[in-house]
Amino acid sequence: MTTSKVYLIPSLLGESPYNRVLPEFNLEIIRSINTFVVENEKSARKFIKQVCPEKVQSDLDLYILDKDTNPQELFELVKLLDQGKTIGIISEAGLPAVADPGAQLVKVAQDKKIQVVPLVGPSSILMALMASGMNGQNFAFHGYLPIDKNERKKRLGQLEAESSRTGVAQIFMETPYRNNQMIEDLTKILRTDTKICVACDITLESEDIRTRSIKDWKNEKYDFHKRPAIYVMQA
């Protein structure tokens, strides 16, 4: 039986003080291991240095797992588990394996009956839902919506209809530099009584979370350009 263990290590959602969002136990785990599977090496090294400055960077073994990782590269990562290594998976931001390529390696670990340990940390998706005032009992996450205008309009109409029919809160994301355009699109496509929460810069000093009807968003003053945001819809 393998002695491997996989720790899912949450990272920060931005330049927030790490002791505000990460428990000490997470830091103990990071101190105890040197093998990490990460989405981006540069940001992972920065994160580890920030939370555990005493760790020697040259001692770290970092392996990349991102959206471009091919099956052969994933096979090489699986060898780490077969060798009995304890590894930490670190996402680019927030929780690994949630809207994150780390889920591929977690699936393999579970298939191999290897212990997977999720650590406590910030989840922009759930924190947005928590603060939105929308249906926390029944919700769905859809990731990024289509870029094509016609496809986006069609998809938003589908989500609104589903929310209206079932009461399900619909959660989605947008690339930060298209946030303002997204809100403009929402005000043109959705019904005036549909509610949208925009949860921006979660856990940061600039955090801004607003739930408004489409009617109110049309008159709202905002600027979410280049700021990470989560959207929650309730029709």
TrEMBL record:
Keyword Transmembrane helix part of the UniProt annotation: no
An example molecular function term from Gene Ontology annotations: methyltransferase activity
Keyword terms, alphabetized: Cytoplasm, Methyltransferase, rRNA processing, S-adenosyl-L-methionine, Transferase
Superkingdom of the organism of origin: Bacteria
SUPFAM superfamilies: Tetrapyrrole methylase
GO biological process: methylation; rRNA processing
One Pfam family it belongs to: TP_methylase
Ranges for domain Tetrapyrrole methylase: 29-214
Cited InterPro entries: 4pyrrol_Mease (IPR000878), 4pyrrol_Methylase_sf (IPR035996), 4pyrrole_Mease_sub1 (IPR014777), 4pyrrole_Mease_sub2 (IPR014776), rRNA_ssu_MeTfrase_I (IPR008189)
Protein name, UniProt field: SAM-dependent methyltransferase
Species whose genome carries this gene: Faecalibacter macacae
Lineage: Bacteria, Pseudomonadati, Bacteroidota, Flavobacteriia, Flavobacteriales
